[in-house]
Amino acid sequence: MVRKMGNLSRVSLLLSLLFLVPGCAVLGSDTLEDALVKNQKKRAEIEVLIGKLKAHYDQGEKHYSNGDLDAAEVEYSAMLTLKNEEENALYRLGSIAYRRGEYAKSADYFERTIAANPRHGKAHYNLASIRLMQAESHFKYFAATADRNANLEKVSRLLGHIDAFAVDGRDEADTQSLDRIAGALKK
Question: In the list 98, 134, 135, 187, which could disulfide-bond 106, CB 3.0-4.6 Å?
Fold first, then answer.
């Protein structure tokens, strides 16, 4: 019992010192009421920001669905000015760049989407698809420029797997197709 009273006394003394000694209080020079007002203002600012982001996103989706990629890009870019690295805007901008054939730019947006949300499965899939297309291009270039006596069997198999993925990858589960190609790369 004496020991419990000792701990209680220490806690009481510590709290007293925090509020009695100027500058040591957790709230600094602000009162509790000032801190609550600041907190309410921050919440209101966040609500306004969320509203603006949603409005731009909704307009962007409308334009994207209608095929107006320029107008959609404006809306998604506006989202990034409000919230840097906003994952939905980054993902859609990656999709727009992909549809335009700007694969390096698209890959950059998908990488940024993944950095913002590592669990964004579609961004991972799209980035992997772009990297496969790039790999296919490099393997074809390698095959075309390789020495005549070079054994291109492995490269041919890889190209076949990549081609099969591109043709029927949508029919199978995406992970199975990617696993099949990854297995071919290990051989």
Answer: 98
